[in-house]
Amino acid sequence: MSESERLLFGGPLRYDTGWNQHHGAFLELSFRALITRLPALLAAGLRLARQADPRAARTVLAAEVTRGVAQAVGLLAVNSVLARLMGGGSIEDRLRGAVPALVTVAAVMLLATLLRAASTYATGRLEPKVERVATELYLERAAAVELAAIEDHAFHKLLDTAQYGASSARRMIMYGTRVANAAISLIAAAGVLTVLHPVLLPLLVTMTLPSAWSALTIARRRYASFHIWVQHARAGHLISGLLTEPAAAPEIRVHGVGPFLLRHFRAMSETAEAEQARLARLAARTGLVAAAWTGLATAATYATLGALLLAGAMALSVAGTAVIAIRTGSASLDTLVLEVNQLHEEALFVGDLEKLYAEAAERAIPVGGRPLPEDPREIRFENVTFRYPGDAARPALDDITLTLPLGRIVALVGENGSGKTTLVKLLAGLYVPEKGRILWDDVDAATMDRHRIAERIAMVAQDFKRWPFTARVNVAVGRPSAPLSEERLAAAVAEAGAEGVVADLPRGLDTLLARDFSGGHELSGGQWQRLGIARAAFRNGRILIVDEPTAALDARAELEVFDRIRALADGGQTVVLITHRLASVRHADLVHVLDQGRLVESGTPDELLATGGLYAELYALQAEQFTRPPAPAARAPEAG
Ligand SMILES: Nc1ncnc2c1ncn2[C@@H]1O[C@H](COP(=O)(O)OP(=O)(O)OP(=O)(O)O)[C@@H](O)[C@H]1O
């Protein structure tokens, strides 16, 4: 079962185990974990902010800290106004006495308003930049990892979760500013309360703890649920994508796959809805418990204030100020808890992103290494073994020793799954051997600069990418760093024999090759194949790897393409050709025959035919198809 099949049909329970295992460390969301991990996660957010726009980051930070201090000063000034108003003397004296403090309150409010405006502007500038920088890093790192990492399920899951990290980094800026602000105003309120009476501060904390607990518990459940269900969500997107995708449209209509997919979509949505309902039920219960706890704590606080008043341990004016300070303080504490919690939740997603950055860096294609021999004579595989990750029963390549003389046509032949594509992927440096060496003359490819190896190679893979861009880009993407000159493009198109394909396009090379876009056009399989060859010609690598280049071509086009491939080799280019059309192999200088991952024969086509081995057998089978009279067809019962 492939990854997508497993996602589609494995059922939600299948996702649980693998996912939990992989992210076990991230699901430890205790209060202690919050306290210990938050600073590091915050630092990650700050780093991104500094990288995105250091000036805006500094402005936000300075504005928020100053705003917090201004709020604290404001609270103290309000306190002083109250003390004046409730103090002794005539009403006029008390009012006059309160004027300086009132002026301070007004000035502080004005300053806070200005600072808020500065912070809003800087935050607005910073947020999209942070998201962009985080996304760019994500994409850059993901594009630089080894092919084996991209094909690894565990790494893919990490890619899935980490994609939410960039928008979380953006929101972290917002929550971060709110947290800084709330924390400073809380410190002011707590300071005032402690001055008024030492017992008031613990009471304030007791009042706020329940909401802290409930917010944290709910967020923890949400995050854990997200991690368990993220693949389920991906599968849902996959199904809805399949239902609307043009490539699947014919089968959906002819085979009636639509209702089948819809049924799966509904079943998956229903399980996801059940999970949402479970979370909502738990959140409601947690909220009720927290509210009861807060109610009790509030009653206890006001009872304590009453008791202090009755016992004569506190003046009425002080109690009045205390009530204001408690209300302001608990509001700040509530905000702080809520925002810290939001910040923490976002920070966890940024943590996933950080984890991806680290893992992608570890699995990146190494940069640097020895230079390649300038003009090597041959590439030699020496006892090369390669196994795909997972539980493959046998290696895809098993102890292969062979030579690829450069400047020649070398054909790789063998039945399906014999390892031909894998071999050329190792040659191109897309995978590294598990055992053995690949030598360019006498330099081990493992020690060479992998990017330089890629420089020398042009590849028309079996499943080469049909980029949803114009025909021009589809050719020029063969070497994006090369100048896009008309001459070079025309030469590549001519080399691939694709002039006819381009001439038939409504806007020539400027035709968009994506039918699902307005003005888009679709090519036939064979026409695409010619463009793919033109792309490799535009790349102009010294070693051309062609994997089944003529699979979609008609007989005339096939002959023409092989003639062109031969011409390339005559011009000194090395051609490594994989094909099942053995008649086309007769022009190869050397043929290697693979069987179940092992090299079974090597030689010129004539030598191999004379030996009478696997090559000769496959050749005879193909030749026979043209000479054998057709067998009488058995009547098959008609399907209902
Ligand atoms: N990306 C992959 N991950 C895991 N296994 C793979 C992968 N690609 C190929 N294989 C396995 O490796 C073996 C060799 O495959 P490979 O594609 O190299 O064969 P091939 O000779 O090119 O076949 P074909 O003629 O069908 O193109 C097969 O058993 C295949 O299932």
UniProtKB/TrEMBL annotation:
Molecular function GO terms recorded: ATP binding
Name any one Pfam family assigned in the record. ABC_tran
Gene3D superfamilies, A to Z = ABC transporter type 1, transmembrane domain (1.20.1560.10), P-loop containing nucleotide triphosphate hydrolases (3.40.50.300)
Topology term for the membrane: Multi-pass membrane protein
Is Transmembrane included in the keywords of this UniProt record? yes
InterPro entries attached to this UniProt entry: AAA+_ATPase, ABC1_TM_dom, ABC1_TM_sf, ABC_transporter-like_ATP-bd, ABC_transporter-like_CS, P-loop_NTPase, Type_1_exporter
* Residue ranges constituting the ABC transporter domain according to the UniProt record: 379-621
Predominant place of localization: membrane
Q: Which UniProt keywords apply?
A: ATP-binding, Membrane, Nucleotide-binding, Transmembrane, Transmembrane helix
**Membrane-crossing residue ranges in chain numbering:** 98-118, 175-193
Q: Does the keyword Membrane apply?
A: yes
Start and end of every ABC transmembrane type-1 domain?
Answer: 68-345
Q: Where in the cell is it found?
A: Cell membrane
Question: Could you identify this protein by its name?
Answer: ABC transporter ATP-binding protein
Q: Which organism is it from?
A: Streptomyces bullii
